Amino acid sequence: MPASFLNRIAISAVLVLLAGCGGDDSSSASAQEKKREQAPKQVQTGRVEERQLGTSVLVNGTLDAYDRATAGTKVAGRLQSMAVDLGSRVRRGQLIARIDPTDYSIRLQQAEAGLAQARVRLGLPTDGASDSVDPTDTPPVREARAVLEEARASRERYSALLKDGVISKADFDQVQAQSRVAESRYQDALEEIRNRQAVATQRRAEVSLARQQLADTGIYAAFDGVVQQRIASIGEFLSAGAPVAEIVRIDPLRFRAEVPERDAASIRIGQNVQLAVDGAAGDYTGRVTRISPTITERTRVLQIEADIPNNGTLRAGSFARATILTDTTATSLAIPKEALVTFAGIEKVVLVEKGKTKEKPVTTGRRAGAWVEVLSGVKTGDEVVLNPVNLRPGQDVVTK
Known about the structure:
It is a single chain. By secondary structure, this protein is an alpha+beta fold. The chain folds into 4 domains: 3-35; 42-52 and 331-399, conserved putative lor/sdh protein from methanococcus maripaludis s2 fold (Beta Barrel), CATH 2.40.420.20; 55-65 and 250-327, Elongation Factor Tu (Ef-tu), domain 3, CATH 2.40.30.170; 103-215. The chain is 33% helix and 36% strand. The chain contains 5 helices and 23 strands. It has helices spanning 3-38, 102-121, 139-163, 169-215, 261-264; strands spanning 41-43, 45-47, 49-51, 55-72, 77-82, 89-90, 95-99, 218-220, 225-230, 237-238, 243-260, 272-277, 284-295, 301-308, 319-327, 332-336, 341-343, 346-353, 356-361, 363-368, 371-376, 383-385, 397-399. A 6-stranded antiparallel beta barrel has the order 4-11-14-13-12-15. The protein has a 4-stranded antiparallel β-sheet with strand order 3-16-21-20, with no helix packed on it. It has a 4-stranded antiparallel β-sheet with strand order 8-7-5-10, with no helix packed on it. Helix 3 (139-163) packs antiparallel against helix 4. The chain is rod-shaped and about 150 Å long.
């Protein structure tokens, strides 16, 4: 028999032997892995308990801005500057925009000049805070009074001369007429000074108005908030009352909801409200602050509002689900929050029954700290797995 043929037989035998050894190793590893999977898994569990979580009403609603205002112009003019834009945070009294003040500055100078002129006509200096004068102590009135006193003295002298027969009745009548004219001129002088005082008062009001219009060229925020919309643009001519920007207050937010008529009697001002908002992590709490005095006849619901403190994560206009705590003394079934599993919108827990796991769908209610209210699906005393990760239904487990 040739040597090459013998060599091939020997090599084949070695390969078969090696293949047999390798298969034994693979089978051994698979058996060990299967044994590990079948071994009971250690888990930590809790119990379904009756806890004093209170009774609650579940409602859906919308978050809205607490305050909303459109900042607009008080005077007409061309928009010179804009200090804010969409999303800008503003403080109360902060400058938002400004109308070109040139025309209003000129009007103020004009009004101040008119006031100075009116004060001079009263015999007052051009500057001063008061336009009050004593009419009888002004030059025109003093002059008229002097003429009147002279006319009265002449009439007294002529009256004595008439009694003595020194002058005629016609001469006395002429002097008496002059006295009456002097009296009338004195009254005219008094009225003229009073008229000048009124003019000065009017000019001062015009100055105040012009100064106010100049100040109104600045547009300011009415409260702390955020710019929701910028309406006007720089260079645009705006009439009086034209909108410039819309500002909203978002801390706190108003939660508006409708409570069914069957639950309306249990709602009170001051009750706690717990909110869950899609896209916002965590729960938010507030209190019922306003309740409508009537139930809507068409829909049979009660309109309510709650103030929700906002740390900046909530947005006005968001849809929210709310739990209103109506009775703090009532008890209900609850599970530790670590036992609740949520997947694809379905809530469930993993129970331990006779050493094996069992998934159970549940319906939950309100959250209260480390506990979650369970409305259906479990009963008091059920053992639930905490943090049930990578557990299969029917898997053997042992509790720690």
